[in-house]
Amino acid sequence: MKVNRLTADLSDYPDLVVVYLGMRVNKPRGILRLLGIGPKLYKSHKDQPDGLLLHEDIIWSLFPPHWGARQYWRDLDSLELWTRSDPHKQWWQKFLKDSGGTGFWHEAYFMSGGIDTFYDDMSTPTGIGRFAPTNSARGAAFSTRRRINGVRPKVPPVVAESDLYNEPA
User: Fold this and answer.
1) Any bridge partners for residue 20, and if so which?
2) What Pfam families does the record point to (predicted)?
3) CA quadruple 20, 155, 147, 26: dihedral positive or negative?
4) Is there a cis peptide before residue 87, judged by omega within 30 degrees of 0?
């Protein structure tokens, strides 16, 4: 029997963004953080934010616990607006003050070109960071838009770089 081979027609999605993300437990207390935030984040995508085309849950590993997702977004604008809204914004602000024994990462792939990565408190390299050198996400490398195309973000970050690193503005 012949294989029925298909491909997706992405012509209606010129600004598509595919995001892989994960949260990995680094320390025993991280299990509480993972279990505490998981249901809240799960509900937030179930509410179908504008621009989210599809969310798929992924278990990267059971030992150590490392859960995540693959998401398809219409464009970077809608993804950024969602990340700056509650409850995501609240979770992100809390995480950036204290990772709670977990690490968080994301890799974003843009239909228009470019790949963005960040790895926060990851105890071992993940994804692209396993084969490519990593650098501090500071200055021009602090925001996704700057990392992928050198332009300023359209919306302010959840936490300002100076606040994250406790530096005077």
Assistant:
1) 70, 107
2) Monooxy_af470-like
3) negative
4) yes
